[in-house]
Amino acid sequence: MLSFVAQRVLKGVIVLLAIVVLNFFLIRLAPGDPAVVMAGEAGASDQVFVKQLREKFGLDKPLPEQLFIYVKGVVSLDLGFSFRQQAPVAKLIGERLPATLLLTLTAFAISLMLGILFGTFAARFAGTFLDTAITVFALIFYAMPIFWVALMGILLFSVTMDWLPSFGYETVGANLTGLSHAVDVAKHLIMPAMTLGLFFMATYTRMTRASMLEVKRLDFVKTARAKGLSDAVIQRRHVLRNALLPVVTLAGVHSGTLIGGAVITETVFAWPGIGRLMYDALLQRDYNLLLGVFVICSAMVLIFNLITDLVYRLVDPRIEFAS
Amino acid sequence: MPKRVLLGLLLACGLAAPALAQEPKTGGVVNAVIQPEPPGLMLAQVQNGPTQMVSGNIFEGLLRYSPKLEPLPELAESWSVSEDAKTYTFKLKKGVTWHDGKPFTAADVLFSMEMLKQTHARARTNLAQVDKIETPDDYTVVFTLKQPFGPFLGIFEVGSMPIVPKHLYEGTDWKTNPYNNAPVGTGPFMFKEWQKGSFIRLVKNPNYHEKGKPYLDEIYWQIIPDAAARSVAYETGKVDVLPGGSVENFDVPRLSKLKDTCVTGAGWEFFSPLAWLWLNNRQGPLADKRVRQAIMYAVDRDFAKDVIWNGLGKVATGPSASTIKYYTDDVKKYPYDPAKAKALLKEAGYKGEKIRLLPLAYGETWQRWGEAVKQNLMDVGMNIETIATDVAGGNQKIGDWDYDIAFTYLYQYGDPALGVGRNYISSNIAKGQVFNNVEGYSNPEIDKLFADGAVATPDSKRKELYEKAQKILVEDVPVAWMLELQFPTITRCKVKNLITTGIGVNDGFKDAWLDK
């Protein structure tokens, strides 16, 4: 297994470098120049000022040289300097990453747990009212755009009922510590995590349901029944476990989409994570910061995918790691 | 502050007469929205709007300006101008200390000017008029100009000319100086904490040089990136101040009806944001003056003011906003007159050639305005295609002259020499730059009028020159002037005296107090 992991990590690094190069050119293909954006914000745009900014950021150098400098930096784990925020990119991302991880992992956990739970129920009671109800519930959240669910959530739970805070990571100025701080953060986390999680939950519900119905028809389930196992044991140990493989695959694929969803969720709920950092960096053409966020997100997706492969093995011991 | 100014301010702010009788109360915390998150707080190095809004509390300038743009003392307690209008002497306030306790002196002013020449595009242009700066003693600064420069007394507010501490910056690499992240100024509030993506916290400066001020204990600047979420934050009582431009205009009427809510359009007199349509004078139908004039007649600017901007602001009459010096409305008028627009287009031989319109990507309000203008122009028979971009993409297109019509708004900084001439003089035509003369208008007479206007004395002479320039420009329509904008500041009514100068919320909260 170790050699499998090592091989995957090596492949991952190559993929990551390819992503860096591709993104480097992709960003520069978009119209807009960070120096002009910054000059614009300063309300002044004379030749000297823009030239000064371009020199400061190294944008006056030929593109291949800029790429070489950047890749050299990334290889030595230096993500460069943010033009606009005048701070090292790694520091800026480091400040924001924990909030994004908290949000995405919570949303991921919510979506997987609820999705598998609802999917199992729907499959168990296939064709009944409960099945239809779960399907409709799941489809509603799947069909609604994340930003709309977020705004409706704010309207209902913050404005109308005043149960949950509408924005931020914690109550600003409350200076809470310990358990009360954790509770405060959790209260702020509920709406963004649910908004993000419910969308993905819908997919897992549908996937679990379909997959379980398919597995249920297989011969080994009949054998299990013939052996006299209880229905609960069959469902849990035989059907669910075998039905989970496609769900795990999907969850691995979703790791990237989840970060994409976090951009919207973090913006609407003013959640101080890297999704928002990425959005701001994009609008301001803050090339280094944007590339830095891409590198971290790509690395996260690669790590998630590696974990997915390892989980396959846990779910289905028949799968072996080829090295 | 002179009484008449105060009275004018209160009336301008729409405050009721009993407010005059109220004594400021001390204490309390104000939560305000800041949008977008500033890239940094070192005002001498970063000059965007949000930076000034926060750092206007931390740093100070030599002067402030009343809503009528008369200079008011801040770090300078008095000033005088020589007979030949070339020497300006500022007497600095004594007993002022930096937030770290070190005394503020003329050496700081001298050092700041050196730094600003390198880091602040606008300050550098303004200081180019200065021949030398001398500090005969610790509390006197003398600027000697190369030639008289009319707007000189108007360039010293905190955003244009922030004074920075020499003892913390001299001999260091300014760009990486650690105090950029924890700025030290002389202002009424001190920097305390910045949680990136969440909030910036400022606390009262207990040693502030104006006795008794500031009244507030703390200010929290909350960072909420979504406009709808900012409205909700106000509605649910989480923030008390929505500075101009922080919520979409269509939310303003709803929010202003909330209990204990006050709305004002005051505090923009110094900046005088003027919105217009860049018209590319170089190519196609817009090269013809009659087509440009037709656009002025075709666009219903009252509709934009009343519907899109909720009645705030004023229809522009020409290149100068009515709030800045030497403004005149004695110019050619362009009322909404589609019939006249059609006639002019016909006369110019316009045959339905496609014209590209770039709205401003500053959110829904600007998007809607873009649609309204498109409709107006199509109504008179123009063939308009809207091009959607984000701000950076739009700036590039405009800078590269790759547009026909484009929305913009720019600050005018109180004087035509500072914020008007730059958009019309031919020496400011430079490809790849935005906010200069991107329309490509070139008129030697206008070049001369603006060049002479900046240095002419006395004031009456400047007035004459600028009035003439306005008349010529309005006749030529190099760009289509739309509205003098007023961004509404929405506050809880318990927040008193928030806006006391022509610089508005960008001038710091030193006069503000909470009526608890």
Helix content of chain A: over 70%
Sheet having the most strands of chain B: 6 strands, mixed
Low-confidence stretches of chain B: 1-19
Shape of chain B: globular
Average pLDDT across residues of chain A?
Answer: 87
Oligomer: heterodimer
Backbone shape of chain A = globular
Strand order of the largest sheet of chain A: 1-2
Report on the architecture of this protein:
Helix content of chain A is 77%, strand content 1%. In chain A, strands 1-2 form a two-stranded antiparallel ribbon. In chain A, a hairpin with a 4-residue loop joins β1 and β2. The radius of gyration of chain A is 24 Å and the shape is globular. The mean pLDDT of chain A is 87. In chain B, the strands form 6 sheets. A 6-stranded mixed β-sheet of chain B has the order 14-18-13-17-15-16. In chain B, strands 1-10-9-8 form a 4-stranded mixed β-sheet, with helices on one face. In chain B, strands 4-5-7-6 form a 4-stranded antiparallel β-sheet, with helices on one face. In chain B, β4 and β5 form a beta hairpin. Chains A and B meet through α2, α3, α5, α7 and α11 of A and α4, β10, α6 and α12 of B.
Which descriptors would you attach to this protein?
heterodimer, A: 323 residues, mainly alpha, two-stranded antiparallel sheet, 12 helices, 77% helix, globular, B: 516 residues, alpha+beta, 6-stranded mixed sheet, 4-stranded mixed sheet, 15 helices, 21 strands, 28% helix, 19% strand
